Amino acid sequence: MDTEVIVAGAGPTGLVTALELARRGIGVRLLDAAPAPFAGSRGKGLQPRSLELLDVVGGVTDRLVALGRTHLPVRRYGPDGVVDEPARGKAPTPDTPWPSTLLVPQWRVEQVLRERLAEFGVAPEQGVGVEDLLVTADGVEVVTTAGTIGARHLVGADGGGSTVRRRLGVPFLGETREEIRMVVADVELEGLDREHWHQWGSPSGAPYSWVALCPLPATSTWQLQAGPLDDREPDESVLAEIVGARGPRVRLREVAWRSVWRLNVRMVADYRVGPVFLAGDAAHVHSPAGAQGMNTGIGDAMNLGWKLAAVLRGADAGLLDTYTAERLPIAAGVLGISAELSGGAMWARTAAQVRTTSQLDLSYRDGPLGGASEGPGPRPGDRAPDAPVGDSTLFLRRREADWTVLSTQDVEVAGAATVVVGDEAAATYALAPGEVVVIRPDGYVGCRATVSEARTWLAPLTARPGTARAA
Ligand SMILES: Cc1cc2nc3c(=O)[nH]c(=O)nc-3n(C[C@H](O)[C@H](O)[C@H](O)COP(=O)(O)OP(=O)(O)OC[C@H]3O[C@@H](n4cnc5c(N)ncnc54)[C@H](O)[C@@H]3O)c2cc1C
């Protein structure tokens, strides 16, 4: 074996997967077919749950928050004039420190993840594409443009056109709607204020009747989205025309990146074939309405990363089967909500839809590690909320270990760090006398039990002593 895990694709999904493995001391190579990192903005909304998930990766969320912004108000231009809509954002609470979607271009998310990954000595190998693969008795032989590499596992995080998925022969079920297209571009312009997300018209009208211009924080650029397209190639002259029509003083200066987006709504029926896993856009694609794609890929990576690391260090191999079982229903739900929000409905989201797209309510309660259990407080499979712990917080304490046991008394559970909680955290978790709550490495409740039951529950899921290291 040349390495323990090969990750194909250094987009957000591949970077987080590699980070989750590298920080646990797993040998990983991150290959990307493109000669250089992707420069366009694409996804520009990091959802509250992603900010929580990335927090344990170490400093990443703080850095992204410093480079992004929340509460950007929308200015809508319609037949009845200009309407300023109040910013949709919430104030932090003790259990939800990042309650609002963070506006930050995807290339920036990737840059911050690459910087963190470099701290573990891993850099994406740009210009090395996966061409084929062969599953062997003890792993997988991966044929790349730079030769064949052997590994115990391969993670296909190589985007919607995934070579890994195709070589596995896994069908990508769903539809492509060639007629539903829009142009997406990063542009420099003058004549608009950067304190609003400016939006005109509706995506279901005449050609270019819908235009949105969003200032990208910590840059001088804007993300332009416009549609429906007409027969023309949306080149710089078309973009200059679209932007120039926004007002007498509005003028396009430069196009840094542009692309035509087509509606694809597809997903796989299984995320795993033997030692090979699919994650992110390689496993599911849908409308960008609702800002779910990058976030769902990050969720996949956080779910898979710790499981793969634990099994490579001696945990029960059956843990890997829980990846598809937990993540496939999430993708199916994301395809549903993004379809619901397409075609303009995005701009009139209900409070319930905003909550759904925040991903804070995603739960693995019905999955194999959850188990039906009724009662107060977060149940097994639910998101583990933050809470004050002494002069710190639970989220800060969780950065120190993979598994965390919450208890009102000092207890010992092998493979986990104990956090002794006071009244406020005990109330958030509705801790009963004698009960402990075990929190998984990816921030979901593992089990609620007595200490001895928790020890028995956790033993097969953790690495063998002396083989794992959480950074
Ligand atoms: C206009 C637009 C707006 C969007 N808005 C949002 C948003 O607000 N929020 C959100 O969450 N999502 C959004 N998305 C979706 C988001 O961009 C994608 O879901 C996200 O990029 C998926 O990440 P990924 O890492 O799975 O795949 P990708 O980002 O596609 O990365 C795949 C990587 O694999 C590499 N690769 C390809 N083939 C190979 C190969 N054979 N071998 C090795 N490497 C290979 C590619 O070079 C690439 O770097 C938006 C998308 C668009 C187009």
Automatic annotation (TrEMBL):
Keyword Flavoprotein assigned: yes
What are the required cofactors?
FAD
The FAD-binding domain, residue ranges? 2-335
User: Which domain of life does the protein's organism represent?
Assistant: Bacteria
Provide the coiled-coil residue spans. none
The record ties this protein, via Gene3D superfamilies, to: 3.30.70.2450, 3.40.30.120, FAD/NAD(P)-binding domain
Could you tell me the keywords of this UniProt record? FAD, Flavoprotein
Instruction: List the Gene Ontology MF annotations in alphabetical order.
Output: FAD binding; oxidoreductase activity, acting on paired donors, with incorporation or reduction of molecular oxygen, NAD(P)H as one donor, and incorporation of one atom of oxygen
Q: Enumerate the residue ranges of region (Disordered).
A: 78-99, 362-390
Pfam entry (one): FAD_binding_3
Protein name according to UniProt: 2-polyprenyl-6-methoxyphenol hydroxylase-like FAD-dependent oxidoreductase
